[in-house]
């Protein structure tokens, strides 16, 4: 969950480079931040709170240069947010400083052993055992690289680690079950994510589990666990520096909501041949799995629910599973099964665990992800990219829309055959980016958000393919407003949740078209209205829902399979403007981080 960055070289601009990288990594955690720079000794500064707390201290205590440096932004696991628990951590003598993402599972045993040898600890973190271990091996006479590698051999758990040493111009790094990428520009860099390196390098190299990287101003070398040098091919970064800034927007979330039409155009680019024929590079023509398990967490799980409904509608056995539960209690994996990991980052720990479980059971696996050469993309048999570009805000917006569209494409290709319905769906897909843009230009969500901003709770209901979007709408509301919000299948309200509905709990209902599903949803909405709850309808105007709703948010008319994507844009805007009205920290909601790399 934490973000780390390291740099060797960079022409005397070490500190600004590290701070810039941390700013781009704050979505991975912002409980505390810190950095360390090596010269004749190691200078460390770290502070509880977000990056602004660190910047003021750095400006007064640090010069710009240094031979090598590391930085960290923290999402707390072991120990509360505090100056003492912030990274980097050092050994007793201040010879080595370390930053870490992950969890050291045997840290208590190691801590006890080190304390028995006279080591004194200053924090509650699992991470602090690492520099003390390195210091211990330095005391035995080992050289720096050997001490680093010996210390890592003692660790159980997950980790991405970067370390610097006093009077030394090298950054050392390694990983296990956490992402690390390397790049070369004006200096040599290592970071948790590609986003931190945008603007510094055009190409990155992904470090694999068990590999060690040694960075100097002239480049890097990589060796495996046995010390054998490794040759790697880099991956080109397709994102530009502007894509990881807020531009003219107040928040990344608002910017990313407004980027959705372009993100969908990129998602659809070059993925059609003729008529209703879809061509996805990751899926060979004619491939039809016997069954599909979609595994995911959070927002991606809501996308998986939507994808499973589409696949079943097109005749495939499909089921969405919470990845954290799938890994612990997987369903039977039969011959011909495909397990799809839906993960924006490609680094979600629970999803990776579920995919590894599926692989061990003999299933074919597919990563549906945004990040090229991510762990999921490398470990799965195939990778299908959603092409959203970088998403910085913790609350997912454009990546969710692109996941839904990619799952539509996947369902069309995997189910095979031609039909009038498929051709109409493809035609509607090509129009979808323009529909999103029109909605963004005409939405009444800011007014609706202000009207209901002081409500005691929020409920979202929908049926069929609208149900996953009801769950997602509620998740966005609770993520960034900190207010109580729940999503339900519309027909389930009267089986218990209706007891929670009051005059102070607005209910948001999505109704598209005027078929049986729409009419049943309208009936559920009337049940809510009869109990005195304010009713907000998100609709294309075909049904009768707008006649008795207190507020109406409209969407352009489109294929009903795609309508949830437009409904969701209204829900995103509603959550955003409610949070803005309440003065919340929208891009950095409390207790959350974007890339969940621990189970």
Explain what the structure shows.
The structure is a single chain. The protein is of the alpha/beta class. The protein is built from 17 helices and 24 strands. The protein has an eight-stranded antiparallel β-sheet, with helices on one face. Strand 9 and strand 10 (187-191) form a beta hairpin. The longest helix has 23 residues, at 420-442.
Set down the secondary structure blueprint.
Layout: E1 3-9, H1 14-25, E2 32-38, E3 42-48, H2 51-61, E4 68-74, E5 89-90, E6 96-104, H3 107-116, H4 129-139, H5 144-153, E7 157-165, E8 171-176, E9 181-184, E10 187-191, E11 203-206, E12 212-216, E13 219-223, E14 235-236, H6 252-258, H7 260-268, E15 291-296, H8 298-313, E16 317-322, H9 323-328, E17 337-343, H10 349-360, E18 364-369, H11 375-379, E19 382-385, H12 398-415, H13 420-442, H14 445-452, E20 458-462, H15 467-481, E21 485-489, E22 507-511, H16 516-530, E23 535-539, E24 551-554, H17 563-582
Parallel strand pairs: 15-16, 15-17, 17-18, 18-19, 20-21, 20-22, 22-23, 23-24
Antiparallel strand pairs: 1-4, 1-10, 2-3, 2-4, 5-6, 6-7, 7-8, 8-12, 9-10, 9-11, 11-14, 12-13
Helix pairs in contact: 3-4, 4-5, 7-12, 7-13, 8-12, 8-15, 13-17, 14-17, 15-17
């Amino acid at each position: 969950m934490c973000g780390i960055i390291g740099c060797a070289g960079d022409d005397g601009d070490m500190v600004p480079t590290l701070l810039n990288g941390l700013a781009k990594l704050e979505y991975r955690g912002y409980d505390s931040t810190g950095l360390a720079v090596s010269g004749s000794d190691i200078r460390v500064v770290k502070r509880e709170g977000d990056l602004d707390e660190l910047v003021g201290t750095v400006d007064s205590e640090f010069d710009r240069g240094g031979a090598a440096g590391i930085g960290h932004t923290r999402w707390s696991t072991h120990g509360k947010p505090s100056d003492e628990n912030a990274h980097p951590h050092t050994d007793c003598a201040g010879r080595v400083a370390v930053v870490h993402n992950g969890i050291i599972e045997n840290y208590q045993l190691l801590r006890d052993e080190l304390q028995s040898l006279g080591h004194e600890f200053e924090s509650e973190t699992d991470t602090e055992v690492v520099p003390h271990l390195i210091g211990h091996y330095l005391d035995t006479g080992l050289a720096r690289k050997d001490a680093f590698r010996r210390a890592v051999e003692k660790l159980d758990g997950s980790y991405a680690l970067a370390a610097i040493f006093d009077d030394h111009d090298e950054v050392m790094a390694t990983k296990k079950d956490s992402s690390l990428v390397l790049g070369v520009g004006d200096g040599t860099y290592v970071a948790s994510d590609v986003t931190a390196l945008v603007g510094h390098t055009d190409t990155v190299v992904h470090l694999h589990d068990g590999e060690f990287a040694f960075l100097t101003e002239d480049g890097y070398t990589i060796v495996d666990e046995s010390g054998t040098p490794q040759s790697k091919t880099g991956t080109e970064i397709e994102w530009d520096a502007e894509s990881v800034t807020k531009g003219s927007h107040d928040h990344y979330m608002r910017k990313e909501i407004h980027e959705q039409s372009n993100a969908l155009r990129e998602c659809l680019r070059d993925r059609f041949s003729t008529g209703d024929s879809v061509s996805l590079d990751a899926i060979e023509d004619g491939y039809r799995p016997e069954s599909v398990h979609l595994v995911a967490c959070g927002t991606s799980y809501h996308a998986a629910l939507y994808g499973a409904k589409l696949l079943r509608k097109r005749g495939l056995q499909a089921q969405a599973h919470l990845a954290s539960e799938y890994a612990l209690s997987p369903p039977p994996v039969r011959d011909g099964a495909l397990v799809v990991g839906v993960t924006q980052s490609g680094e979600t720990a629970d999803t990776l665990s579920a995919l590894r479980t599926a692989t061990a059971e003999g299933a074919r696996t597919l990563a549906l992800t945004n990040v090229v050469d991510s762990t999921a993309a490398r470990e799965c048999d195939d990778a299908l990219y959603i092409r959203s570009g970088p998403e910085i805000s913790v609350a997912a917006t454009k990546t969710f829309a692109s996941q839904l569209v990619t799952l539509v494409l996947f369902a069309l290709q995997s189910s095979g055959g031609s039909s009038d319905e498929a051709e109409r769906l493809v035609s509607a897909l090509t129009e979808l980016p323009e529909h999103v843009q029109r909605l963004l230009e005409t939405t009444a969500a800011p007014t609706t958000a202000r009207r209901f901003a002081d409500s005691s709770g929020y409920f979202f209901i929908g049926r069929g393919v609208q149900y996953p979007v009801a769950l997602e709408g509620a998740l966005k509301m609770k993520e960034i407003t900190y207010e109580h919000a729940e999503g339900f299948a519309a027909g389930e309200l009267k089986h218990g949740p209706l007891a929670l509905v009051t005059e102070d709990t607005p209910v948001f209902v999505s109704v598209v078209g005027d078929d049986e599903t729409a009419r049943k949803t309208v009936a559920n909405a009337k049940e809510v209205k009869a109990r005195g709850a304010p009713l907000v309808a998100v609709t294309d105007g075909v049904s009768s829902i707008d006649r008795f709703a207190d507020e109406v948010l409209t969407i352009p008319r489109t294929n009903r399979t795609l309508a949830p994507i437009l409904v969701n844009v209204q829900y995103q805007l509603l959550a955003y403007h409610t949070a803005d009205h309440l003065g919340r920290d929208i891009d950095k909601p409390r207790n959350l981080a974007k890339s969940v790399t621990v189970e």
